Amino acid sequence: MADHSLSSTAQALSIDAVRATQNLPLSPSHYLIVCLCLLLPACSLPPTRDFDARIDKTSAASAGFALLPQEKTIDPAWLRPPTAPPHLGPGDKFDIDILGETNARAQTFATPDGKLYYNLLPGIPVTGRTLPQVKQDLEQGLSQYYRHPQISIDLTEANSQRIWVLGRLSHPGIFPLRRPMRVLDAITTAGGLITSSLSGTTQELADLDHSFLIRKGDILPIDFQALLREGDMSQNIYLQPDDYLYLPSSITNEIYLLGAVKSPRPIGFAADMNIIAAIAGGLGLAPNADPRHIVIIRGSLTTPKVASISFPDILLGRATNVRLQPGDIVFVPTRWQTTLQGYGSIATNILGNTSRLAISSFAQVVGANEGARLSQPPAAATPTTSSLAPPVPTTAAVQTTPTL
């Protein structure tokens, strides 16, 4: 039956061809058969779908993420205890005596203005000076009252040299650096990591991948996973005054939107969070933003994976929207930053420099916010000092755009 219909159709087409060559008119039924034959091949094509930039067909993990090369390594000097004498400052307590003189012994301290008051002397500056230097100043000043005075001065409490140990710890706070102290010593001083008491397990609630140690504005390459989980003591360096140690919570589902956006801040993670939703959560791009080189940082701060995306390509449908994960850092650079970093270099250098700038901005923002929270008057007695300011170079870092 099918063969008969096909033969009939072929016969009709041959008749139509003859009539067309002889310029004879075609009947309406013949016209219909020709149109159907032309449309049948199109029905056999595979179905296609229109591109939709809102659909993430490739997850962010496979959307151009690459491991950022680590430039800094552990300095062997960091693993040796400090040998230099400590520098003095406000709050330090002293025991002073004049040898051979009666009733000359006194216990005193450095006042908030950084001066030491003893005997008949006016205030002697001690901030930033060492104990031998202060001893020499005391002997020189007392020489107008005593003949060849010999001073004995001891530092009984070193309260001016402090370290910041904050985050998911039992007793976070600001602690005096009275003796050589390493990273594990500081965590122990703060009561250790908080563990899960609700589940009845000892699961640590600190996010070791995003933990960091800031020294003089720089993030030191400490691998907290290797130190606390694997016992790698090569990561257990000695601390210095004003070091900032922070171990964030692992149960906080946030992404960190930083850089040239109108409202840089942590954003609560929601289901199907993507880059467009994150930028919208920051109230849009700032006027000086460079949306062509937005950087996403994922994973550990010491060995992060980074990806560079072009926000205009996503909006125009030329690129797929990128789905985010909790803990991701989204950094929007300024046009000036990318121009400066890309001068005389290739695109990979722009990505690496922007990624390191993003990590530094993340540490400063998180550190400033946690330090400001700690500086508020506590409800109960804690080992903090409310008059101190966090040692990071910004105050309201969440409301500002980090600059180079």
Describe the model.
With 404 residues, the protein is α+β, with helices and mostly antiparallel strands. 27% of the residues lie in helices and 17% in strands. It is built from nine helices and 16 strands. It has helices at residues 2-21, 28-43, 131-142, 183-189, 224-228, 275-281, 311-315, 335-342, 347-375; strands at residues 66-67, 93-98, 106-109, 115-116, 124-125, 151-157, 162-167, 173-176, 212-215, 218-219, 244-247, 254-259, 265-268, 294-298, 305-309, 329-332. The strands form four sheets. Strands 1-15-14-16-12-13 form a six-stranded mixed sheet, with helices on both faces. The protein has a five-stranded mixed sheet with strand order 8-7-11-9-10, sandwiched between helices. The longest helix has 29 residues, at 347-375. The radius of gyration is 35 Å and the shape is elongated.
- Outline the low-pLDDT stretches: 13-24, 44-62, 342-348, 380-404
Average pLDDT score: 75
Tertiary shape: elongated
Residue share in β-strands: 15-25%
**Number of helical elements:** 9
Biggest pleated-sheet summary: 6 strands, mixed
Helix content: 25-40%
For the secondary structure, the number of strands is: 16
The SSE order reads HHEEEEEHEEEHEEHEEEHEEHEHH
- Rounded radius of gyration (Å): 35 Å
Give the strand line-up of the largest sheet: 1-15-14-16-12-13
* Alpha carbon gap, first and last residue: 81 Å
Give the topology, please.
Blueprint: H1 2-21, H2 28-43, E1 66-67, E2 93-98, E3 106-109, E4 115-116, E5 124-125, H3 131-142, E6 151-157, E7 162-167, E8 173-176, H4 183-189, E9 212-215, E10 218-219, H5 224-228, E11 244-247, E12 254-259, E13 265-268, H6 275-281, E14 294-298, E15 305-309, H7 311-315, E16 329-332, H8 335-342, H9 347-375
Parallel strand pairs: 7-11, 12-16
Antiparallel strand pairs: 1-15, 2-3, 2-6, 4-5, 7-8, 9-10, 9-11, 12-13, 14-15, 14-16
Helix pairs in contact: 8-9
